[in-house]
Write a structure and sequence with these properties.
The protein contains 11 helices and 8 strands. With about 240 residues, it is α/β, with parallel strands linked by helices. It has an 8-stranded parallel beta barrel with strand order 1-2-3-4-5-6-7-8, surrounded by 8 helices.
Length: about 240
């Protein structure tokens, strides 16, 4: 399963890229609003310098022509830009027209397998079900992931299922087991995936054992040196 980071924070993206696990980036207007000092175009351009994987840039227009205008602009910024289009009647039309123009897309705000099927048929390259938001209203978001993965595989659709709205490390595990092609993960969750109390305890124990062994070796070496010096004096 490919791992994207869900952020518009350049420093966070650079950190995950250094880990060697970054396959792409998803952004949206809410994430961009948390950044400062750069325009959205500047943020997207900088992100595309960090990763050659897909970088999703979301349109905010609600009409088809507006979506097309914004999406075409984003697509010109870099070859790995995927235009992020929300699921709706106008969104489906925009997806179909983007496909005709050869512009890659990510259909976002999917909450059912039927919505994902429609997006795939319209030509979306990525299908983004929001598992966390479904969980918030007492529905199992992973059911949509499993159903949509099965639909894509059974009918050999040319789309990938991207598990979005990831809230915690268990979501990542569940998405991987459900067959999601991609999960887009917040920086905090990436950090949580790394750490485990037994790992931290093991590292601390190894360090203590190493220091103890090194101290014993240094003590033994010092004693040998003292004994050697005493022997030299006795021999003279």
């Amino acid at each position: 399963m490919k791992l994207f980071i869900d952020t518009a924070d350049i420093d966070e993206i650079r950190t995950i890229a250094r880990w060697g696990v970054l396959d792409g980036v998803t952004t949206n207007p809410s994430l961009f609003a948390k950044t400062s000092g750069m325009t959205y175009d500047e943020v997207l351009t900088e992100i595309c310098k960090i990763t050659s994987g897909p970088v999703s840039a979301e349109v905010v227009a609600e009409d088809v022509e507006g979506m097309l205008r914004e999406g075409r602009h984003f697509a010109k910024l870099a070859d790995n830009i995927y235009v992020k289009v929300p699921m709706s009647e106008t969104g489906l039309e925009a997806l179909a027209r983007f496909r005709a123009e050869g512009i890659k897309t990510n259909c976002t705000l999917i909450f059912s397998a039927n919505q994902g099927l429609l997006a795939a048929k319209a030509g979306a390259n990525l299908l983004s079900p929001f598992v966390g938001r479904l969980d918030d209203i007492n529905q199992d978001g992973m059911i949509v992931i499993r159903e949509l993965v099965s639909i894509v595989e059974i009918h050999e659709l040319e789309s990938e299922v991207l598990a979005a709205s990831i809230r915690h490390p268990l979501h990542v595990t569940q998405a991987a087991l459900a067959g999601a092609h991609i999960a887009t993960v917040p920086f905090k969750v990436f950090q949580q995936m790394v750490h485990h109390p037994l790992t931290e305890a093991g590292i601390a124990q190894f360090r203590r054992d190493w220091e103890k062994a090194r101290a014993a070796l240094e003590q033994a070496a010092a004693e040998r040196a003292v004994a050697g010096a005493a022997g030299s004096r006795a021999g003279s």
